[in-house]
Design brief:
Radius of gyration: 19 Å
Distance between the termini: 76 Å
Number of strands: 12
Structural class: alpha/beta
CATH superfamily: Aldehyde Dehydrogenase, Chain A, domain 1
Number of helices: 10
Number of domains: 1
Low-confidence stretches: none
Shape: globular
Strand order of the largest sheet: 9-8-7-10-11
Oligomer: single chain
Largest sheet: 5 strands, parallel
CATH class: Alpha Beta
CATH architecture: 3-Layer(aba) Sandwich
């Protein structure tokens, strides 16, 4: 005799908690599950959670952030079968999970090397040392898009948080389950609450609000189509929020993390 089947209810991941959409609305994508349709208020709460968490996350040593990201890779590896099932199974799903693991391990290793790769000692005329140091932008809003359900999301989240940013990510609207499942991996992977927040829903409900939100410091349009990118750039123009353009293939490179950082110049008198 078998026990009852318990169907998992997908939920948003905001501030380290799994919550239903504030509106109570759901939609049904290609899967049979009812997925929360994130609202403007859900976006606002996610940005607040990210803003609260970001200073503490950035205050950790870069080596410590790399350890946490590596722990996320360990947790994803242990949940490999669940991710493959959410991706539809088969070899292609296995390859996508492998690529996600590779991205997490890469950015775990890059975390304590960004200062050396992006910083410099500048020659100045005078008795001073002049340094350029990369610092996190702050809160990043990420649009994962529908081209692939998981890999762009994992790659860009890892690139953002390894530099000390906090993230609010809109997962694939067509295939949201793998992205929402990532929340469980983040929670068991020791990522502090609020550092990564995951929303599901329709882009037309959220992108306009995200573009004009003045507490978002950077918008990563990695999964946007050209029209969505233009709309986000126009909405963000008044707040001078930085908007990164879409990309066809997520690349494992420290320059992706450095694009999500600001360069700070520091002067020190010689001899001190």
């Amino acid at each position: 005799m078998t026990g009852p089947t318990v169907t998992k209810t997908p939920k948003l991941y905001i501030g380290g908690a799994f919550v239903r959409s504030e509106s109570g609305l759901v939609y049904r994508p290609q899967s049979a599950a009812n997925v929360p349709r994130g609202s403007r208020k859900d976006l606002r709460e996610a940005v607040r959670a990210a803003r609260r968490a970001q200073p503490g996350w950035a205050g950790l040593t870069a080596y410590n952030r790399g350890q946490v990201i590596y722990r996320v890779a360990e947790m994803m590896e242990s949940a490999r079968s669940s991710f493959m099932l959410a991706l539809g199974g088969g070899r292609q799903a296995g390859r996508e999970v492998d690529s996600c693991l590779e991205a997490l391990v890469f950015y775990a290793g890059a975390a304590d090397k960004l200062s050396q790769l992006g910083g410099s000692v500048n020659s100045v005329a005078g008795p001073f040392f002049n340094f350029t140091i990369p610092e996190p932008v702050g809160v990043t809003f990420l649009v994962a898009g529908d081209r692939r359900a998981l890999l762009p999301l994992v790659t860009h989240v890892a690139a953002a948080i390894c530099g000390g940013n906090a993230v609010v990510a809109l997962v694939s609207s067509a295939r949201p389950l793998p992205g929402l499942l990532l929340g469980e991996t983040l929670q068991t992977g020791d990522v502090p609450p609020g550092v990564v927040n995951l929303l599901s829903g329709m882009p037309e409900d959220l992108l306009g609000w995200a573009g004009s939100h003045r507490d978002i410091d950077l918008i990563d349009c990695c999964g946007c189509d050209p029209q969505e990118w233009r709309e986000l750039a126009e909405a963000a123009a008044e707040s001078v929020t930085r908007v990164l353009p879409p990309e066809t293939t997520p690349a494992l490179t420290p320059s992706l993390s450095l694009r999500m950082m600001e360069m700070k110049t520091v002067w020190h008198p010689v001899g001190l």
